[in-house]
From TrEMBL:
Subcellular location: Membrane
Keyword Transmembrane helix: yes
GO cellular component, one term: membrane
Protein name (Swiss-Prot/TrEMBL): Integral membrane bound transporter domain-containing protein
InterPro entries reported in the protein's UniProt record: Memb_transporter_dom
Entries under Pfam families matching the protein: FUSC_2
Topology term for the membrane: Multi-pass membrane protein
Domain Integral membrane bound transporter span(s) in chain numbering: 196-318
Keywords noted in UniProt: Membrane, Transmembrane, Transmembrane helix
Source species of the chain: Devosia soli
Amino acid sequence: MEQLSRVDPNEDPYLALRTMLGVALCFALAEPLGMTQPMLPIAIGMSLLSGQRGALTARTFAGPLMLPVVAIVFSWLAAVTVNEPLIFLFMNVLLAAGGIALMLFRGSRAGMLLTVFPAMMSLSALYNEYALATIRDSMVSGGLLVGAAAVLTNLLFPPRTKRVHIESPKPHVSRNPSVELAIRVGVYLATLIATYATNNISLLIAPIMMVFVCAEPDHGGRMEQVVDRGGGTIVGAMVGVAALALYNLVPQFIVLLLLLSAITYGLIDRMTTGAARPQYYQYVCSVALVIVLSSIYGANSALEVVVQRVSITVGIMLAGIVLLSLLEEMFVPRDDTPEDAAVRL
């Protein structure tokens, strides 16, 4: 997939402001709209708003508006198949294979829809019907709210450029695509099934992290994922803990709203001005928001959330890289690299 590019401040000086306002609006309206678990909609909304590049186009609103459709479809599929284990498993295997293939060989972000969202809904369905309904309803309300926030913030603070951003993904080129796909899907499914076995919905982060490891075409890309997502998890956890400490001093709604806004603005602004890759700051922001909100609205303590996030994220990504490298060494010829295959073509 295309790596998140750095924003030129001359083209779009308001990216951080738009994202901050979007997060603040989603959080402020979460309770009136009946969202009992606002973490995922806010985190996904932040990622979508901060991922805008170039001039305003219809694609800017396509992502948020797709969330309700995707949530309804995959929650329904999970609900009707959860009591039929073979059909349930076959459906998730098929979706995982299709999603990883799209991400790996086409560089398409649509592949995430076929992996991340089915994993979320299937694990929720295994947990209980209430968890599935809660996540579905939160994603539906959150998607519509993020779409409205995208429209409003872009009208108030539009990008200054008229350049339309065209994605330039770098798909993986392989002489043995079926073997490589089978290896990656197998590693991902092993993580997903192990998560199913725990029946712990808070471990959902494990298969989601493994998706990004398995969809990267080479070792360098995977290591970048570890640095950005693993390192971002650790830094985001520290930011989240600091915010929780301040909130506990004055546990008021307005204080929490200001903290979330400050975290979002500061980190998304670093996507433009920081030295690290933009996706690193985006992930730090996502982790910080999720840790703060899940500690306040969830059943787990702040320490448990932080330890779980850090240990699972870093551990699962490193384990995935080692396992993928070992399997590829065993079953994929050493000279089967993207560069060699491209030359032969």
